[in-house]
Structures are given as structure tokens and as C-alpha cells.
Queue: 4 jobs
Job 1
Amino acid sequence: MSEITTPIETLYLKSTLGRLSRAFPVVHRSQRIHVFPRNTLSTSSLSSPLSIDPVSQGGGSRNLWRSYVSDKFSDMDLDLGADSDKMFSEKATLVDTLKKANSILPHVVLASTILALLYPPSFTWFTSRYFVPALGFLMFAVGINSNEKDFLEAFKRPKALLLGYIGQYLIKPILGFIFGLAAVSLFQLPTPIGAGIMLVSCVSGAQLSNYATFLTDPALAPLSIVMTSLSTATAVLITPMLSLLLIGKKLPVDVKGMISSILQVVIAPIAAGLLLNKLFPKVSNAIRPFLPILSVLDTACCVGAPLALNINSVMSPFGATILLLVTMFHLSAFLAGYFLTGSVFRNAPDAKALQRTLSYETGMQSSLLALALATKFFQDPLVGIPPAISTVVMSLMGFTLVMIWSNEKEKNI
């Protein structure tokens, strides 16, 4: 039996046909809509109409009518979905675009690297005094998207924290010693170059590893932050000892400066983000959509500036060999962190997420700190070349992994 369109339906459809580009009317709570049942001609049905109350005064009733009218027009071979969806999503377009800015991060890092090589003045204005606040802003972005309970949960995984520490201060220094020794003995590079590679392997984890983890596995970002904080806090003692052991000379470290750096780069901005998120949630919600695009620009400067500021050394005759050695060093560290974690946490429910997190933590070092130490405590400028190249290489490799692993997660969902 054919369907019967009620008088109310007919009036509504006619009015809507004349106003395709306008919004659907909102049915208020005081109104009550009576729709006769379809597919029936029984007297009992006509005398007992089905009452439909709006779900809510605003969006609920609108969504109810949108769904109802969409079905009616579908029966008439008319598609209102595209127009109505476009109308209701226009306001969200800008916010969605800003939130998706992180997806272009690897491309931006690559572009900033090329720009720094071709036109160094584009980044030379971003001097070393901006490094601490720039990295601090990235930590603020992580903090405002986190909860204090997440950090308390991180300390409930001492096994993962210990493994991250081993990756930073055992596996990575061993790899640094191997590639630093190869630079001098196999490739006949100057001794300061080998010392620079070893110096990179002796510093703490990079704050960018926290941001990379946040982009791939947000739930484990606090764990990554705690790992980096522990390695950074103990770098005051561990870095000089490893440098003495691997490089063969004492490397003095400014203890007060190191503590100040930890407070500025890690603890203070994350605490500020957490407090803002808890005390002023409306403010947090207002600025949160803009953080991804600002973080992308921030990261581009952190990558391009060290390269531009050390362009003469990077473009030296042995620059390509150093690039190869530094790349192999970081690749080995990423792989070591990933597969070591896989063997230890093979039965964990979040084993893959832990593997990605520990891979970032082992493969990404605070190369900016190594560059600062090389500049301040070593007279030979060649020591600073590997840290400058490392800043670019580990960023490119890390955020390329972010892109690869994020795509894999989306496919598996």
C-alpha cells in the first residue's frame, strides 16, 4: 500500500522547498507536534495520533526535524544533506582547520630545513635566547591538553620509566660512542667531530619527544614528560660523567643554569597549562584550537634556527659525512627504543603505544642543550656541528614517525 503524506507533512515540505538555503525552524518546548502514522488507513490509527515531543528546546528538536525531513526528501530523490551539512558546519571550519595543523608538521619541519640552508637570514634572528621560551610553549600546549591525574598515573609505571631512563643514558651513549669512534677512525674526521657526536648522546631527552608522543598517543604524553623530566633533572650529574667517560675530558655544567632551564622549559609551562585548564576551563577551550598552528610555527623555528646559525660549519667539506653519521645514530636509537620496548612489554595492552613512546624518548635528544654546551665549554667550533645537524635530523625523523604512526592508528580504528 502506498505511503500517505499527512497535511502537516505537506505544508512543511512545501515551505522547506521554497527555502533550501535557510535553516530549519526550531520547535520550542511549548509546541507539540502531532504526526499521523504512515502506511496505514485504519480508523484507530487516525484517531490516535503519535505525539512527538522535542528532545530539547534548541539543538535536539532541530536535529529531530533535520533527520525527519532528510528522510522525506530522500523518498522524493532530493538530497538536502550537502546543503544542510554545509550550513551547520561553516562555523566549525576554522576551528577544524586549526586543529588539523599538526598533520602538516613534518612538512613544515622539512620546509624550514630547506629554507635555513638556502636563506639562513630567515632564521638567524631566532637566536639561542629564544630556545627556552620556544620549547616552554610546546610544553604549555601539552599541559593545557592534559590532566594532573595523568601525571600521577605515570609514576605507577616504574618499569616503563626505568626502561626510558636506560634508553637515554645507556643505549644512546653506547651508540654515540660507536658512531663517534667511527667518525674519527673510519671516516678520518677531526677528533672534535667525534666528540660532538658523543656529546649529543650524553644529554637528556628532548622536550620535542613529549610533543611527538602527545601527537601520536596523547594518553602517554604525561609518561613521556616524566621520563624527560627525570633524565633532564639528573643530567646535571650524568651528562658530565658520560662526557668524561666517552670524550675523555671533564665537561663542566652550570648547575644553577640547568635547574633554571628545567623549571622554564618543562615544569613551569606544564603546570601553567594544567592550572589554566582546571581553574579557567572556558579560557582553555577558547585558546586550545589555536595552539596546534602556533606549535607548528614554534617547532619550525626551533629546527631552522640552529641550522641557520651554524650554516658555515654545516656546509663544510665534511658536512655530508657528518650528516650520514648523525642520521645513522638517530635511526639506531629510534629502532633500539622501539624493539627493546616490544620485547619487554610484549604482553601489555598498550604495547604498541609504549613502543612508540620509548622510541621517541630514545631517538630524540636535547640537541639544543648539546649545542649550548659545545659552544660554551669547548673552544673548537667543530664540536658544535654534530649537535646543530642533530637538531634538524632528529626533528625530521621524529615527526616523520609521528605522521606514519598516526596514519597507521587511523587505519586500525
Job 2
Amino acid sequence: MAYPRMTMRWSFLFGVSRTLTRQKNHIWLRYFSANAISHISSNKKEFVRKLSSKLNDPDVFGTLSLHGSRGSQSLDSINNQELPVDEGDVEEEKHLSFQPADRKSVEEFEKEISQLIEKRKLKDALFCLEVTMKEDRIQPSIGVFSLLIGACGREGYSKKAFSLFNQMKKKGFDPKDCHYTALFNSCANSPWKVDGLQRAKILRQQLNDRNVLLNRAQYHAMIKAFGHCGEVNTALQIVDEMVSNKLVVTTESFSFLLQACISLPEEGFARAVLVWRKLRNMRVTPSIFSYNLMLRTVRDCDAKDVNGQQNPIESVLLLEEKPDLQANSVLNQSILSTSELMIVTDQLTVRPNLLAEKIKSSNIMALTGLEKTENRLALLGGIEGFLEEMNKDHVRPDIKTFSLLLETIASNPKEEKVLMEQMKACGVIPDISFLNMFIKKRQFRQDYSGAQEILSYFQDYQLFPDIMTFGVLALGCRTLPEADSLMSDMENAGFRMRLFAEIAFIS
């Protein structure tokens, strides 16, 4: 008896096939056993009689192999040797072990998911895990979960990252250091700061309750998470926790703190000063990234406290020297604006540089006008004082440093001249973006002739104007001949007029 080849896939059909095969084997065994009994020698007739009675009893069929008698063992050996091979059994065994040609292994799925993540196709990568692998009945590995949790963390999908993390634990995989780092990154990058902060707090509490030892990467991710969610004080506490756990606090640690300060537009500058003073107190040498981040706080952030009020400099900006005010002095006042501080030449007055290891100040109780970028820069020593501190720390400024300085200094020719002189002294060569920004700065203050003077720097440094250069130059065209001349220069340079240049001409 042979059955046609079955190619059914579903498991319940496999069960039906196995049941039919067992019934078929039972029939063959009864048939063969009856024939084999007739050939057994006469000295075993009693055994045959007992065997036949058991074969006729359906309740005991299949238990012969449980008997340790010699006869049952002989029968088993006879069955194995002489029972014909059923073609249907062979086909079923092949079908049970058959895997379709398009069915991938877990390693192939892991590679495919990695490639999709590199192409920024996170949705397709998640589809592979949640749909394709389930259809093919492939159990995901810990590598698959690690890739997806990390990708969700970088994109800020905190809810999905934590969901995948819980699924991974239900599968029996133990969390690793990279998983905690990715979860904190998801909180830091989440656009929903309240939700990200809540998840970061819960995760940190769980790690503390379980006494999990964290490494520097996890602490940095934690600092980034709390900092970007507005909890700068908690981020500072985490730095202290690193010290207590005998982990070396590096410049990178404070860079994450400064990045957190940048995310606070109202109070970021004051917070950044606190972070910088902590950096100095812990004897950590800042890097070029630290200085550039401080300039970003000068450019983008105010110096207000949580209540929206200007903090006095002695409490927020941490002036370390309290002066003895002299009578009948122009400086005999409790509040001195930074604009006045810039023009004071009295030797008793020392401009405070909050970047220095030790702050020096005289005759200053507090400062006002910190809503202006140039006033905030003055507290860091101005252009010269800022670059001097960089030199003390053996940090060489780059073009980004001077670009940020250009955006923060006062918009007047004197400050710009000092900046260009310092730039030349430091050996930094301007690029096209810097010069375009320079032209734009002068155009906005309606210094049109000064904007034209910047073009000489293109020749000095052998730079060729781009379309943005002509765009900012168009802002200074006041007459039709000037516009025609600029359009002619654009055509000679091989540029076509864009919409923003047309609008500039029209306005």
C-alpha cells in the first residue's frame, strides 16, 4: 500500500498524515506477524499462542517492545529487516524536513535587517521581525533585537525601543550593556520630552534597584537623556555618581552636559557656565568640542533661571572675588552692564573670564543685558580672552570656532577686524561659508560697501563664490544697475538665478 506524495505545509495536516501512517504500519505489522508466527518452530508454540492473543487485543497492541522477552526482541529484529519500505513514509519524511528555497535562516534575516537599517528603512526592518519572520516560523536572535533596539534609539522611537526590549526578555535573552545604552538614547532623542524623561527615570531606578554596574557609555547615554529632557541637575548628579563609582570623567562626559544645556533656550547659558565651572573644579581639560559647544550656548541660549528672571552674577555666574567698592568712582555701583564693562579702562577693573581656572573680577557685583550675544561673550573674555583660554589648554581653534565667534560678536567693524586678525594669527583659513556669513552680517546692518570689501578675501584665499555668495550679495542691491551688474557676474560665473535671489532683487 502506498500513498500519493503529500506536500501540505500546515502542522495540523502533518498530524493527520502521521496518524494515517501509524494505522498503515499497524496493518502491516498484524499481517506480517501472522505470517511470521506460522514459520516459528514447534518448541515455541506456547510463545506464539500468547503472542497471537495479544495481537488480537487492540488495547495492548504497540506494547510488545516493552516486554523484555527474547521473542519480542526477535520480532523487532525481524520487522526491521524484512518489513518492506513504504514509499509514502519516505515521501512524508522528506516533506517534514523540507524547507522552501526562499525560506531564510535567522542569520540571513539579521543581515537583511542590518542592511535595511543602514539604508534608514527602519519600518521595513521592523516588518521583517514582526511579519516575515513569524510567517516563516523563524525565532529571532538576540542580534536581531540588538539591531532594532539600537536603531529605534537613534531615531528617538522610545516606545518601540522599550517594547522590543520587553519582547527580547520574554524570549529568554539576557539584556546587555548595549541595550541599556540604546534605551537611554531613545529617551534622549525622543521628540516627546515628558515621555522620554519618565521612561529614563523608570529605567534608571530599575538599574539602581538591581545594582547593575554601568560603564561609561551607559552613563553618557544617561546624561544625554536627562539633559535633553531638561533635567540638567540630574545630569550633574550622574557625573558625581560616575566619580563615586570610580569611573574617570572625561571631556566627552561634559560635552554631553553642554549639549544638554543647548537644548534649554531660556537658561542654557547659565547652566553651561555651571557645567564649565564643574569641569574646571574636576581638573578636566576641555577640548575643541567643549569650546565650540560653549560658543553655541552663547549664541543660542539666554541666562535666565527657572523662574524666568536674570540671575545675579555672583550666584549664577560664580564670580569668585567680591570687590571693595570705592567712593566717588564711576564703577561704584551694584550692577554694571556689559556694554559699560567693555569700555571701562580703569586698571582696578578686570574683565571676568568664566572659562578660566580661577575667575578674577574687581568692582563688579552683577551684570545686566545678558540677552545680547555679545554681552554673554564678554563674560567669556571676548574674542581675545576666549582664544587665550584655548591656547592655555593647548586647544587649536578651527573654522567652526571662528564662525561661531562671528555670529556672537557685536555687529561693528572694530570687532570684525579683531576677529579677522585673530583668525590670521591662529593660522585658520576661512572657507566660503564663513565669508558668505560675513557678507550677510554686513548686509543686515546695511553696510553695503563693507559687504563688497569681503570679496577681496575670495581672491586672497583663492576661493570661488558659490550661488549662496550671489544670494547674500543680492541683499545689497539698491538700484537696477547694481542688480544688472550682479546678474551679469552670475552669468559669467555659470550660475542661474534662483528664487531667493529673485526675491532679493525685487525687494
Job 3
Amino acid sequence: MRETVLKWGSQRTTWLYVLLAYPVIDFVMRKILPIPVVVSSLWDKALLIILLLFTFVAFLGSNRVMPGIKHLFGAFFVLGIALTVTDMTNWQASFEGFRSVYQYIIAFLIGFYLLKSVEDLDKLLKALVIVGFITGLYGVAQVVLGVKTPEAWVQEGETITTRAFSFVTSPNVLGSYMALVVPVAVGLFVKASSLKERALWAIVTLTTLLALLLTGSRGAWFALAFGMFVCFFIWKKRVAGYLVLAGIIGVTALFFVPESVPMVGTVKNRIFTLFTSDYFEASSQGGRIGRWGKAYDQMRVEPLFGVGLGHYGGAVAARRFGTTYTDSYLFKSLAEYGLIGLIMLIGLIISMFRYSAKAILKLQQSPHFFPALGLFGGLIAVATHNLAENIFEVPFMTLYFWLFGGFLCALFADQTQTKRW
């Protein structure tokens, strides 16, 4: 038994699978098992340290060369350190703000150096999807059982009182998680060679898609639609055009659906409410649009470098200074980093996507193409959702984003080096 445990503990994949089970483990440790608060709060940090040790060993023994994105990473880290040390008056808030961003971005390095092959990526994607399926199924069960959504996530005047939120903080977080998982599940379904496998991934796809719909998260719906469009555009541009046409026809038809129709009527209400004058007025006064405007005003105080990390619009600023959430990681970053930091962050993400897309295009004749393409679409969806939500404030979501981005960039590096030699 001891030898088995040591053997498992010495393998990098063991700890990667633990990381992919993050939402379930965190929920069990915080809500079910009688574990001290300190342990339940620090276990993920300990896991990251273990993975970083494996990453350091892999780095020393690897010939894999990181592409040009390393320069952007270095510059972005230097900026973060500079912003942290320039406000010594609020040192604790600055340090906590720095940690809340960069502690999770290092998952990119973990993904880049710990991935061994594209076959490894397939296995890790299956783990991601299975954990996502469990999470989504829990959310679906909440709606079926009539579990009331906490009032903080129900807008005034809304008739919806049961939005799926599972055990991942909120309906919007669950929506973003499902938007990441659904395209990967679709990719695994297309790749499957046996009827049994296809049936499994079809069930997983439909369950996670249903969970996404039941979250009522409009931002996640739109983000998934955009992510899927990108997938189809990479695969076959003509099909992507048909998809846009089908979307236009579908939205038009949705307008005429009575709100009394189960689920479809709810989706209609959630979407078309966005275009009413009442929603715009309420959102401008105390909702998203108003918060985005306030974040923009904060940036105007220090347009180049912002008001400082952990100083506005997120969890750290809410604890330290009592500021409200911006409901947009984009605007939060604009206020805290200023224009220079925001441009660097966007450039970093675009650079990661560029290398990832190149890696996926080289897999077109491979059976691994569709799962990798689905992952790319899921990452696009998560990044897009951050325009309207603080998704990167959720540890496991930002870890997944940078980890899998690192995996795809590792594939690109291997393809480039193989071609070179």
C-alpha cells in the first residue's frame, strides 16, 4: 500500500488529475468533511507548490523551448511587481492583489512543461469533462428539486427563482465552467470510434449543455456561441457561415415564442430583457453598465498604471476597501492596471491563442484534432465571458484557463522543434 501511494505521488499526472478535480475536492473539504478551515483554505496552494516542483524538474530535463510568449509573460510579471512595490502604504492589499492574479497565471508554466504528448492531453481532457459532468449534473438536480437560487443572483422583478449554481459559487461561474466543458465534450464525441463511447460523450454533452442553459447566465450563453463559432471557423469556414445564419434565424424565431413555454420561454425572457429601456436604466444606475462606468472613471485617475492591484473591483478590493465588484474582469483590470497593464494582459491572452490555433491547425489530419479544437473553443468562451463577469476571480477557472493554454502552447513548441530538426 505504501509503495503504491509513493508511486502515485511521484507521478506528475496524479497531481494534474487532482487539480482537474478542484471544484469537487474544494466543495467536499469545505462543506462536507470536518476539516479545519486552515487546511481547506490552503490545500490548493500546497497543490500548486507540488506541481511547481514537478515543473521545475521537467524544465531542467526538457528540450522544449517556450515561444515568444515568454517575453510578454516576463514583462507582465515585472509590471505586477512594480505596481505592488509602488504602493507601500497599502502593502497588504497590493500584495494580495498581486497574488490573486499571478498565483494562478503560473499554471501556464505547469501546463507548458508537464504535458508529455497529445495523447496525454486527450486523457486530461477526459478528466476535465467528467468532473464538469458531475458538477453540471449537480446543478441540473438543483433545478429539478426546486432549490432556490440565493437572492444575490436574482435580479429585482425576475420570475426566475431557480438558477443552477451547483457547488461552484454562482450561476455565472457554473455557466462559464460549462461553456469550457461543452465544446471539449463535443470534440470527444466526434473523435469517439465506438458506439458506447459516443453514447457516453453524448450524455455528457447534453447534460453539461442543459446545466449551462439552467444557469440563466446570458454572458456564458453568448460566450459559448462565440467559442463554437470560432471552432467552426477553424474547421470549415462555410459551416461557420451557416452557423451564423442559423443563429440569426433562431433568435428571430425565439422572439415569437410565448414566455409560457418551459425553458425556451425563460431563455427568451433572459435574452430579450437585455434590449429593454428598463434594463438599460437599471443597469446604468446600479448594475453592470454603471459599474463599468465607475471602473473607467477610476482608470482616468491614473490612466497609464491604474489605481493599483487589489484596489478596485474584485474580491481583494471588496475586503480591503469596500469597493463593489465590476462584473467584468476587463474593467476591473482597466481600473487596477491602467491602459498599459490591460493592453499587456490582452496581448498575453491573444498571443497564447495565436500559438494554440497554430498547434491545432497542424493536428487537422490527426484524430486528436476535434478534442483540441473543442478545448480552444472553450478557452475562447471563458476569455469572452470575462468581458461581462469576473470569472478570473474564481481560482479553479483561471487555473484551468492558463493550464490548458499552456498545454496547447506546448504542442506548438513540440511541433515547431520537430519540424526544425
Job 4
Amino acid sequence: MALSRTALLLLAMAAVSLLSADAALSAPATKVCVLGSGIGGSSVAHFLKQYTCESATAPCIDDIRIFERREKVGGRMATVTIGGDTFEAGASIIHPRNLHAVRFARLLNLNTKTGDDSDSDPKSNVSSSSSWFGIWDGSVFVFQTLPPPSPSSSAIYRKMYPLLNSLVLAWRYGFSLLRMDRFVKEMIERFILYYNDFESRPVFETVEEMLKWSGLYGLTHRTLQEELADAGLSSRLVSELVTVITRINYGQSVSISGLAGAVSLAGSDSGLWLVEGGNWQLAAGLISHTNATLHLHEGIDSISYAGGYYVLNSTKGNSYACDVTVIATPLDELNMTISPPISVPSRSLQHTFTTFVRGLLNPKYFGLNSASEIPDLVGTLELPDIPFSCISVLKKYSEEDMTYKMFSRAQLADVLLDQIFSKRKETVRINWPAYPHYEAPEVFAPIVLDGFHLYYINSFESAASTIETSAVAAENVARLIISRISSPSANAPLIISPHSAEGILHTDL
């Protein structure tokens, strides 16, 4: 029977539809797809493009897609607005010897400020010799530095104040402070090996190789407490000042693994800095500079290896074909299917509950008579009845009106906040799955998850979690991708022209 004209038309339309689908599947795959727009994802995009497009030794990788399930780039670098002012809510401070972050800020012409010039983060208050902080045991302050000089103080006292504060610290902790400083400096000297030139620095396929090469691997197999005992630190320093620092920086005690603990202590150095307006601008600027295609508010539900490329299905119902896929966000709490299945060690994330309050602290809660007697930073000891890790003043509008930032391991209920504060005008709460829960000995996920081209930047985060460690891990992953694409049968070392590497590895601070 002859087909009707209508039937022929329907068949033609179906054929066109099938041809269109086939054409879409056979279209050239996106070179690299990156999951996550934080510092890890933005850095790997930056390094991939710079190390290939500015060098004749490798094909230019300039087709990069970055997927971000949230509505804004930056990952755990984020800000919050309270009282009309903007403050850091996530990754807050950067060490002066974090060379990648230093270079990113310069490359992007971002305005920066040091922690000593800003009240925007409690960690900077710990580091500043001129800051006023106290250590609280739940009942009394067991130690305080000197309150800052009043405007009516003499010029001589204001000049002498930092020295006097140093003497106060030295009187309580003695030579253990010097031993702690030496312990941190030794770790930093090993870490800066990751900025060596490419001829002397290998491309690493595993985190274990990466840490063993720099001499840092052993620190991941012992607790910070064990390492500091061997370094000769007094029990008073460890149980007080060191504990305050680890509780602030990682929300954990001195039973944290040694490398994470050493990195945490480095966060108490002087000269710490941040980007004016928010550190998230580092990620946003790198993505813009790389000219990567950014997919905001589009997460990835599944990754499937299709033999030579990956198919990524998104939360918006879209499918993408990618030669290389880089996961730059923690897999631990990510609801995503990977096929064939991969195997990674079980790891829990340490949640930090950040509470911003505009109001005034209640002095009676701290056993004091006046709010003016409460230090600008209150750190706490590792005791079960203390409900928060720290409270710091972010900004003083008047003696009766301030903005505070609190860290805790659980959400702070309104009833408790009303005990801690005598006045509370505005409250903002954030629950961050901020970093891994560190526990020696650490076990690391693979960098190459499937043996092909599925990479995982956050495997390095089990060693330590900072803006800079993410950038260092991302740079290694970028070099690994390039070397494995350039030499599939053998991972030859990546050689890049001096021009393309200039200013990255030899930054003079």
C-alpha cells in the first residue's frame, strides 16, 4: 500500500531528528570539562591554557568548560553581607609565601590588604602582634594579650605595644614559641619546593609521590600533637595556643594530622593577606582570563566513560562530551554517578558552622563586667562544654554595636546566642563542609581516578586544605594532563618554554 503524504512527511521529520541527534553525538568533544569553579577548578583551567597556548611544545588547550552547581563562582571562597558590609565567609586568608595566589592577584590586578590592616578575619587577629586575643576555658580567660592602646595613650606606648605583647607571649610560653616557629618554617621550606622549575620538579601521578618528593609525607602519618612533642614544645603551649589555632583554622584539636596541623599553624604567621571585596575574585578572575565557558547553576549528575571520551549529564538535562574531565570539588558529599565505578577511600568532611552577628557580646557570659573587657578575638580550649571555637570582632561601629564572626562545630541555636549576646540585631548562619576531618595516618584518593583522563584535584586536600594547596594540586594536575596527552604511552616530563613559566616559579617576594 502506498504511504500517504502525511506519513511520508512524518517519516522525513523523524529521519531529520535522528540525523540531528547523530550529528550532536559525533560533534568534536570539548577538550576539557572541569567540575567546580573554586580555586582548584579555576587554577587548573588557567594552568592548562597557559602551559599549552603559550608554548609550542604542546597543542593549545583553549576549549575548557567549567560547571558550577551554585549561582556564583568561588566554591568555598565566599562572602556574606551583614550590616551593609561584606566579610569573608569561607577561605579567608592567604600566606605571603603562597606564590601562586600572589601571582594570581598580580595577574588580575586585584587589590589586596594584609590581615594586620583589616578586621575581616579572626585568623589574622591570631597572627597580629598588635591584636588583642584571649584564651577562654568556658569559665575564665586563662590568658590574654594586652588590650590595644587607647587614642589617649602616649606615642611611645603605642610604638612599644607590639613588643610588649611579644613579651607577654614569651613570658607564658617561653622558648616553645621559637620551637613552634622553627617547626612551621621547616614545613614551609619543604612546601615551596612545589614552585621549583620544571626541570627539577617531576609531574606526580599520586599524592603520595608528591608528598614524598618534598619530604612532607611523614607528617601525614602522625598527629600534630606527636610532632610538636618531638619538636620540644611545652604541653602548655600545645594545649592552649596551638589548640586555639587548630580549632580556628580547621575546627579540630591537636589530634589533627601533622601536615594539616603545620599548615594551620602557618595561618598564624604575620603578613597574611586577602583580596579586597572577597577572595572569590581570584577564581572569577582566572576563569575570565582563561576565557573558559562557564556554566553557572548547572551541576553534573553523572559521568560515563564512552571509550576515548566522557559523557557528562547535567542537572539541566544537557549532555556534554569531554576528552578530559577534571573533578575540582570534594566527592565526599557529592551526589554523582560515575561509570564505570571508581574507588576512593572513605573520608568525612569537617563541617564548620559560621555565624555572623551584629550586636554586642554579653560580658556576664564570660564572667566580666563590661563588653569592653572582652578581647577582640576569643579562642577556646578543647573542652566538651564550650559550644564554639572562636568569636572575633569584624567591625566596630560603636562601643555598643559591632559585627562578630563565630566558628563552631554545630549550629548555634537562638537560645544560646541570646545568652552569648546582650544585643542581636542581625544574624547570618552558614554551614560549610569546609575541609576533610584530618586523622593520621591519612589515606589519599587517586589523582587519576580511572586510569584514563578522569582527574581529581581534591585528593591532595587530605594532606591540607587551603587556597594555595588547591592551586598547587591543580598545577600538578594540569601538567599531568598535558604530559599524558602529549605522550600517552609514557608520562614524559613536561618541558615548557621559559617565557610561559616566567613569573610563576621564580616570583621574588
